[in-house]
Amino acid sequence: MNFKLGNFSYQKNPLKLGELQGNHFTVVLRNITGTDNQVEQAMNSLKEIGFINYYGMQRFGTTAVPTYQVGRAILQNSWAEVMDLILKPRSGAEKGYLVKCREEWAKTKDPAAALRKLPVKRCVEGQLLRGLSKYGMKNIVSAFGIIPRNNRLMYIHSYQSYVWNNMVSKRIDEYGLKPVPGDLVLKGATATFIEEDDVNNYSIHDVVMPLPGFDVIYPKHKISEAYREMLTADNLDIDNMRHKIRDYSLSGAYRKIIIRPQNVSWEVVAYDDPKIPLFNTDVDNLEGKPPPVFASEGKYRALKMDFSLPPSTYATMAIREVLKMDTSIKNQTQLNTTWLR
C-alpha cells in the first residue's frame, strides 16, 4: 500500500545480505530558528568530526516496555518475566484491541481468552499467546519460539545495543575524542589494543568498542570494568555469554564509536507554505518532475541536508548531533503536537 517500485535493471549477480554499502539520506528540517552561523557550525562539525555512533531510539521500541528489557530477561533465562513483559498491561498509546487483550491476560492468565480479543494475530503478543495455548504455561520457551527468529533475536540485540550506548558514553566522558592506550582498533576483522607508543598512528575515527559477547575482547582501561559492572548488575556473567539455548548465545561484535558521514552537503531555504515539498523524492526524479523553486524570502526557514552513512548507523543520531535535541519518542511526539496546533 502506498508504495511505488521502479528503476529496475537486470544484473549478472543478485544482491545478498551484508552487501549494502550504505544509505544516502536527504532530510529537511522545517521551521528552524537557528542563525545561518549556527547552522554552518553544526553542519561543519557533522562533516569534519561526525557524531557518536549510538544505536537510534528505534532500536529500543516505541512502547512503555523497551525491547532491551525483554532481551535482558531472555539472557537471564527468566522466562516468566519475558512472558510478563510482553503481555502485561502497559501505559501509553496502544490500539484498543491490544489494551483489551492485555486486560484479559492480566485478569484470567488464559492465553486462549486473551487471543480472542485480538483481531490481528500476527503481532508478537498474538504469536506468544498462540504458543502458550499450544504448549501450555509450563513451557514458555517453546511458546516464545513460535515468534519468528528475527523478532526473537531483535530483543537480545537490543540489550547489546543498550549496553554499547551506555559504555560509549562512559568512554567519551572518561577519555574524550582522542584515542588512548588500551582502546581497541580493527585490523581486518581482528580487534587489537592501541599501545602507548602507537597512539599517534590512530584517530578517534579508528576506535571501536565491543558489543558484549563470548567472542570479543574488551578495552584495556577503566571502561572494561564498567562493562563488567553493568552486566553484573543485570545478573549476567560477562565471562560466559553462551546461553543454554544456542539461538540466544551472544558472540558479540565491534562498532566504531564515531562516524563521519560522507557526501555531506546542505542549504538553508525559505518557504511560505508548510505543506509544499521542499525537495524531489526518488519517484519525482524517476517521473522527471522539475525540482521545487525557492523564494528568496519566506515566512519560514528550512535546513535541507544530504549525507551518506555506512550500514547499521542511524540518521536519527546524525540529526540529533546537528540539532542538539532530545530524540526520544516522548519528546518527538510532543514536538509534533505543538507544531500541529
From TrEMBL:
UniProtKB keywords: Isomerase, tRNA processing
Top-rank lineage group of the source organism: Eukaryota
Pfam family, one: TruD
GO CC terms of this entry: nucleus
TRUD domain location: 50-260
UniProt catalytic activity: a uridine in mRNA = a pseudouridine in mRNA; a uridine in tRNA = a pseudouridine in tRNA
GO biological process, one term: tRNA processing
GO molecular function: pseudouridine synthase activity; RNA binding
Family per similarity comment: Belongs to the pseudouridine synthase TruD family.
Protein known as: PUS7
